[in-house]
Amino acid sequence: MTGDHQTLALLLFSVFVAITLAITTWVSRHRQGSAEEFYAGGRLFSPLENGFAIAGDYASAASFLGVPGLIVLFGYDGVLYVVGFLVGWLVVLFLVAELVRNCGRFTLADVVAARMSERPVRIAAGTSSVTVSVLYLVAQMVGAGSLVALLLGRTGGAAQAWTVIGVGALMVIYVSLGGMRATTWIQIVKAVVLLGGTVVLTVLVMVRFHGDIDRLLLTAAQHSGHGDAFLAPGLKYGGDWTARLDFISLGLALVLGTGGLPHILSRFYTVPTARAARRSAIWSIGLIGAFYLMTIVLGFGAAAIVGPEAVRGSNAAGNTAVPLLALNLGGGADSTGGTVLFAVVAAVAFATILAVVAGITLASSASVAHDLYASLRRRSGRQRGEVAVARVAAVGIGVVAIGLGLLARDLNVAFLVGLAFAVAASANLPVLLYSLFWRGFTTRGAVWAVYGGLIPALVLVVLSPVVSGSPDSLFPGVDFQFFPLQNPGIVSVPLGFLAGWLGTVTSAEPPDEAKHAETEVRSLTGAGAV
Amino acid sequence: MQSSNGRPHGDGGGSENASGHHDGQGPASEDMRYRDPWYDALASGWGEGEATGAPVAPVPAPRREGQAAPRVGAAAEVYLEVQRSAAFQEVRSRYRRFVVPAVAVFFVWYVAYIVAATTAPGFMARPVAGAVNVALLAGLGQFLTTFLFAWAYARHARLRRDRAALELRWDTQELTRGAAQGGAS
């Protein structure tokens, strides 16, 4: 890469950072420091605003960089990812959005704890929420790192590390100073920027092929070196039965995990009513669906125009396919158009990462302060104290994510996100659905459901080929691989549901009919919702 | 917006109406009822002709003898009572009648899609038109059905649930407030 690319991209990115910092300062000028404001932004966002913010939160680096990269390398198997990412929204819309908005205040644990003995349930749900968030954060950090490595023209090394650290520092500033209101506005700005950038690239790809999708696909298949197989499933997940099962596992995790992502759940608390929550979910489905359709075009476009060889040469996991595509679409490495477009895309990707990272950090700091800290410190009922803890927690989570992000920087971003989804689907979704819909659910069932999903999911990942035993794993030198699949979902999600059921039927305490009635009435009518 | 198709007291479900005390509503007045900031016009016209969107029966008034109970017990009693009321059961069953089959259908369709993608790549690779094969069509179909389901759910909720749920919300809040005051005095 030439100096021009870097300068321009860095300039654009600085503009985005400046704007977002200005937003942060602006919205926090009359800060009262109430928990309502810090976690939920005052709950007065409109469905449209929240829909964009959700799209901004959800369309992460995994989608913008990872998915096209997977399509370039593996063809149709990359498409399977986005289908899961989108279909999962139906779970959110049907079963989660409105009911959670009606029952909870700030976090997932609120919904569960309303029916149960509060302390153990909060600790369990808080722990799993933080775990999911940290995994998701690592994916974003890795995306930031690989982007910079491309931008600055050298893979690995100090530049990558410093970016990860810089992104971490920025997100801590956003979150701890601006809370939910600043984070939401950053998401909205980012969603507009991201969708705009994606539309431009998609249009350019279509123009290049004169609007002929057929030719786009055929050219992609030709340049991929796989021929027609490129357009059919099987290149990545085709081989042996382990790989196929791995994919089914991933698919389940994607579709069931969305409903358990803490940073998505917390977005529904920023609107005033359940109806507004539903309408924001509808908006986000529209926006996210359109975005994913475009990433598919970008993926096949990158395969056709850039080619898998060049992409793999730049980043083995494919994360840099879209920036390379932009460079090419603009007219090549030495043209002004190429320079500008490349810089724009790099800046958009940075903005994406920053905004998503801020959203997740906020959600996990809410879990730490509102669930874990509040439960472990018995009665520290002062809200002021809780928000202060949340700000400190944001710093702590930032440090953890930076550390893990540096460690995991050679893994594909979309794959890492798949792991986060698997843990969310195993640990968060069962307990959430049981508390909303099962009359006989008890405290023990809730605690078991969380740990019964969380622990297997994490243990299976540690024992999987991701961590050890294969040349691509995190620690290639050692081998304690035991579980063959990369994604634990197919085992751990049923285990989460099973553990919740088992805990409930074996518990001595009878289910609390009145609390169940309260949850059910509140969830469906919104009575007593904050 | 609310006046056109307000509350057809008594009609639209006579059998479920047995427990209703029409005059037990208290001060939940008409203008209070729709103070939902984003509660925009309820799809004027289309699809609402069957008058199915209207609530069925009001929540029964709090039992007089319940007032002697302590505060918390009274509030809990209110929720149990609302849960047992015909109006709530109707809202709940409308929600479930849509959501349960819809979840089943999209989940099975999605699982069928990923299982087919992994176990029957030959079938998925079958060309349909030009470069487009079954797999691409199925993927596109997933997008389409997701949009359709989302639209259908929103429409169903707007026409069949929102109004009744909102009335129940205010009624329940009235009752809990009443119960709290009753317990205190």
TrEMBL record, chain A:
It comes from Streptomyces spiralis. Residues 512-521 have a biased composition (Basic and acidic residues). Gene3D superfamilies: Sodium/glucose cotransporter. The keyword Isomerase does not apply. The chain crosses the membrane at residues 6-27, 79-100, 121-139, 159-177, 189-209, 247-269, 281-306, 340-366, 387-407, 413-434, 446-467. The keyword Mitochondrion does not apply. One of its GO terms (cellular component) is plasma membrane. Belongs to the sodium:solute symporter (SSF) (TC 2.A.21) family. It is found in: Cell membrane. It holds the Pfam family SSF. InterPro entries: Na/Glc_symporter_sf, Na/solute_symporter, Sodium:Solute_Symporter. One of its GO terms (biological process) is plasma membrane acetate transport. Keywords: Cell membrane, Membrane, Symport, Transmembrane, Transmembrane helix, Transport. GO terms for molecular function: acetate transmembrane transporter activity; symporter activity. It is a multi-pass membrane protein. PROSITE patterns: NA_SOLUT_SYMP_3 (PS50283). It comes from the Bacteria. Residues 511-530 are annotated as: Disordered. This is Cation acetate symporter.
